[in-house]
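Ticket #4471: structure output looks truncated?

Reporter: J.K.
Steps to reproduce: submitted the chain below (320 residues) through the standard prediction queue, then opened the result file.
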Amino acid sequence: MAAGARDPERARTSKVGDALVVRIRAALNGTDSRLVLLGAVLLAMGIGVADWLTRPELSLVVFYLLPLLMVAGRCAPRTAVAFALALSLQGIVIGISAPTALSRSVIVWNTGVRTAFYLLVAGLVISLRRVLEDLAWQAERDPLTHAPNRRAFAEAAERAFNSSRRTSRPVTVLYLDVDYLKPVNDSIGHEAGDRLLCRVADVLGDDLRSIDLFARAGGDEFVILLPDSDGDEARQAVARLRQALAVPFELAPGVLADTGVSASFGGWVGVPGPHTTVDDVLQLADQGMYEAKRRRDGSVPLAGEPSRAQGPDSALPPAP
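Returned output as attached by the reporter:
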């Protein structure tokens, strides 16, 4: 089989793996850590009672792994270590007070083995959590700009759309296209082009509201989500971004971009209908961006904007 034929399959496999990592992280973060800790403490106490009632020859140490895994998988690392030590202390109390008491040397040995075992398990789970968190972060980030990627944007946009449907407050999706990226790559180099894209990502991250979200859609394009924003508010946001992008910066060693970054904006605004998808809106916003590039007058064409339906933006298709 040719390499080109395997690439789609590899891409699908990568997407499935990324989605699985994101879901695992969501499952780990979906429950309040305090509730998890409380449940683990109660479970450990129940196992401790059973351990106290059974003969010393019948070890229940393996059952303590369940509450330990709960804490190490959801709570802070320090809490997991403290919980592991608490389990060891509980083992000492059980060894001393059990109906069939153990000798001191056996208690010391069992305590040392249990403590090492619990700390090892807690450390492994904590390390696994960190790996999963890193993988989940990478699965939702653009590797160059570290901005969210299109998948992360789509998930956030879907939540914003659902909120907009409930409240009937409009939401705006903007498409941003960086002008003149190809000439920069051709004349100065791709490293300068990468620096240009990172500059745009930095400006978006600094100047948008905390409730807004942006992502790199690919190439020289970014998408921006403005919840609870109508057309006028979206244009005000674009004006602020243009002003921030126009600040000069060093494009390459010894090369100053004295006019900053030029970009074209288009978008969609409205309350999404029951069957409106994120892809539908992104397609309309993309059309608005190309309309802005065609006009070259600094306008921000917004599809679905009733107040401008008879104005120059009416050439865009209506909202789905």
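Triage note (M.O.): checked the attachment and the full token line is present. The first helix runs from residue 3 to 29.
Status: closed, working as intended.
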